[in-house]
Amino acid sequence: MKAIFIAVALAIVMALGNTQDLPEPGVCGVSSIAPKPPSRIVNGETAIPHSRPYQLLLVGFFPNGTAKYYCGASLIKPTHALTAAHCVAGNEAKDIRLYPGIHEFTSALLTPSAGIPAREYFRHESFNNQSLANDIAIIRLQTPVVIDNVKTGLICLPPASAPACTVGTPVVASGWGAFTSSKNITGPSRPTELNQVGLQCVDAQNSDCRRLTYTLFFIQDKSKMCAYAPNKGVCFGDSGGPLVRERTTASGQKYLEQVGIMSGTVDCSFSKPSPDIYADVRYFNAWILNKIKASS
């Protein structure tokens, strides 16, 4: 019976990985280990181990196998990950690895053999590395992740018709980014465990957000959104990671939905409190579906 169950489970996973549609709430956005409500990524807290099973670590390597940087990412299908365009720009797919199902970030992970290779990636065609416009990328994994909703799980994505993340909506960012404004890849300023931080969505008309998401202060870049909480935020190493909100289905089931991709920060708010910038996932719904279709 156990062998039959495993075979059926794997068949479901493989079928889901080969379909072009995104998973429905209940298949995505759920976990066997409930996350605790956030209170450092900067001034956040350590997440309950594996309570955010959609969280991935992304590491870029030099051709000789030495790690050169890391980012966050999220698992949206067993075969596909979502991250920031600036986390893959300038790198070949063969030098990128994704690490699912981890909580502790140790030096042992910084080897290509420990991760899942990227087969290919799609960086948004209009990505601008200076302004961070259209800062989104889809990665097609070499092999699918087996989903158990304990250590590994999928995050739901909002359809284009989903409501925007309105002002004051509670959201959570997660990652292994720095506690200080140090950009060093390792060291005491970096956490060894996955951290999370509770934030709120910010009005695009907010003066600080407007300065980050508008061109010449009057042309809105709708690919961007902001999140903020006093004395809290994301930092270097959190780029590409998910910003999620809780939603409820018509039948009453609660699930998590990714509304943003961590894109940029103003000095991690250390010199002056400021919102952080995220790519607005809802805005990219059609683009995401198109790239999944192209790589399935």
UniProtKB/TrEMBL annotation:
Q: Which SMART domains match?
A: Tryp_SPc (SM00020)
Q: Which ranges does the record mark as transmembrane?
A: none
GO BP annotations of the record are:
proteolysis
Which range is the signal sequence, renumbered to this chain?
A: 1-19
GO molecular function annotations of the record? serine-type endopeptidase activity
**Which parts of the sequence belong to the Peptidase S1 domain?**
41-293
Pfam families, alphabetically?
Trypsin
* InterPro entries per the UniProt record, alphabetical: Peptidase_S1_PA, Peptidase_S1_PA_chymotrypsin, Peptidase_S1A, Ser/Thr_Proteases_Immune/Dev, Trypsin_dom, TRYPSIN_HIS, TRYPSIN_SER
The protein, known as: Peptidase S1 domain-containing protein
Q: What is the taxonomic lineage of the source species?
A: Eukaryota, Metazoa, Spiralia, Gnathifera, Rotifera
